[in-house]
Fold this protein.
Amino acid sequence: MQRQAVDSSVSQRDELEMREMRFAMLLSLLIGFAMLAGKVAAYLMTHSAAIFSDAAESVIHVIAVAFASFSLRLGARPASHHFLYGYERISFFSAGFEGALIVVAAIAILFESIREWITGLQLHNLSSGVFMILAAGIINAGLGYYLLRTGRRTNSIILEADGKHVLTDSWTSFGVVGGLVLVLLTHWKPFDPLVAMAVAVNILWSGGRLVWRSAVGLLDYSDPEAGRKIRERLDAICSELNIQYHGVRFRTTGYRQIIEVHLLFPRLTSVSEAHGLATILEERLPAELGMPAEVITHLESLEDHGEVHHHQHYTGKPD
């Protein structure tokens, strides 16, 4: 009964977090469309290379959010007989896809900025364009912090990636506003493409970091900080249960941790007792870590586990 209550509580928490993530993603998509429409209108009014750079990033953002929303729904599906570990690792692919799109946008912005500078700068209605982009930047800043906070609370790399992208978009808008204000004050038009190029370099760095994070996630990079927290809680729980452990390995799916650990029991411990203690640890560790996790335990004899591992290492066969 106690285990059923724990499972029910975890299930309810996961369902609430999933609803929150879906709402955040929907909000991001709707605001993304609104921001895109406003920035395209501002570009058509002004013909500013800097505003073009901001609008180009918004195009990428809308495409990326649509793909991220699909990834979020796919990742929430339960495991199947073809995908025994579920679909959660799609989150790394989603983050990498978004990062790659950002890199493409940066290259397009650089090309367009240089082209407009060479062909001649024709700027119009800058004051109206500045106010429109400033408003977009303020809205995106609020949305970005909301997405980032929600992503960290729910352990969603998809929302975190989206939040970082939206924050980058807001800083892009503020940079564009600064550049256009300089144009208005000095009447020196090259400030416009120069700001666009600076924006391109900034988002190129942001996109590259997302691609890198996606790559290391797919390669099962083990975060040292996560490892420290896992071992701290393992030490405390195993000390309380009077058991020892070794062989800890862990990886993230982008939403939850999958933790493997070998538990050591005295040789005379019954299988039933050892299994019972292992089950307690498997249930307590995710709760005390405060994050979704699946714990996989391997039971070993305390007295001779070293000899068994040594034999298997050199022969490749169990005893």
About this structure: The chain has two domains: 2-218, 224-315. Strands lie at 244-252, 257-265, 293-301. Confidence is low (pLDDT under 50) at residues 1-10, 313-319. The first helix runs from residue 2 to 46.
